[in-house]
Amino acid sequence: MSTVQQLSPREFKLITKFIYERTGIFIPDEKLALVSNRLRKRLRVLKLDGFMDYYDLMTSGGSEFEEEFPHFLSAVTTNETYFFRNARLWDLVSGDLLNELMELKARQKSLSVWSAACSSGAEAYSLAICLNEMRHKIRDWKLSIVGTDISSRVLDIAREGIYNEYAVSKCSDKRLKANFKKLDEDRYRLRDDIRKMAKFRFHNLRDRMKEKFDLVLLRNVMMYFDTPMKTKVVRSVAASMNTGALLYAGDVDPIRSTLDLNDFPEIEYVKPFIYRRTEAPSAA
Ligand SMILES: C[S@@+](CC[C@H](N)C(=O)[O-])C[C@H]1O[C@@H](n2cnc3c(N)ncnc32)[C@H](O)[C@@H]1O
């Protein structure tokens, strides 16, 4: 059983380099104690003697790696999410944002939205609930909601559609009643037809998505990335947007606060947190 206390600077460097290369997640030196504490718990679970054994397992590329990778991610990031997180955004979504997109897509009668880095799906399903509430306006439209994340563990939870009290705590009573069935003290099951509106799959934000979307939500993930990765992510997200599509980047605006908007002619600033895809070609 492990008795190790803390990652040595060399072990920390190896592990943080590994995660950066796989995910773009940048872990600064000040996080050494935090990462040590979190990984020590994984050593205990896996009955490993030291951090180097853990590093070897992670870099083995075998099935043990596949199984451990989501736990590793959870140890170095947070998967926190809940329905209707940030009331300001959701007022905007069910008002101006969806209305503007409905006008834009009135001829095609199709709307595709992407919840990027969706964690366990509350964001994608909040969108599904908003769209369902507008059904009378878009009855014969083709709707597609895609939620993606790098962690298979959270994607499994998303597909199941069962949430605890905390995850639904920001749903109004009306929405809770209309969209969930209470299973027991702490568990709520999302209505089946709402659950079926969203599809979930693995996607690393480092890579490009093949399809294009009309609305992208990119929230509470960019803080894990350094500037080169943020640049890459904004560029590849913009490349996955139809002309006129909207991007909500928040809750702390990672584009205006840390990047130079002049580097991204393919998107224009609309108002706090909101960007629109222009016709300009993406930079390389
Ligand atoms: C804090 S959650 C945000 C969930 C949701 N967007 C929200 O705002 O409620 C951050 C998520 O980003 C995911 N993530 C981290 N790095 C990623 C990457 N390179 N590609 C895709 N997802 C990533 C994590 O697995 C985690 O589920």
Quick summary of this structure?
By secondary structure, the chain is α/β, with parallel strands linked by helices. It has twelve helices and ten strands. It has two domains: 68 residues, Chemotaxis receptor methyltransferase CheR, N-terminal domain (Chemotaxis Receptor Methyltransferase Cher, domain 1); 191 residues, Vaccinia Virus protein VP39 (Rossmann fold), CATH 3.40.50.150.
Any key phrases for this structure?
284 residues, alpha/beta, Chemotaxis Receptor Methyltransferase Cher, domain 1, Rossmann fold, 2 domains, 7-stranded mixed β-sheet, 3-stranded antiparallel β-sheet, 12 helices, 10 strands, 44% helix, globular, binds S-adenosylmethionine
Task: Describe the protein.
- With 284 residues, the chain is of the alpha/beta class.
- It has two domains: 68 residues, Chemotaxis Receptor Methyltransferase Cher, domain 1, CATH 1.10.155; 191 residues, Rossmann fold (3-Layer(aba) Sandwich), CATH 3.40.50.
- Helix content is 44%, strand content 20%.
- Helix 1 runs parallel beside helix 3 and helix 2 packs antiparallel against helix 4.
- The protein is globular.
- The model has no long low-confidence stretch (mean pLDDT 93).
- The structure holds S-adenosylmethionine.
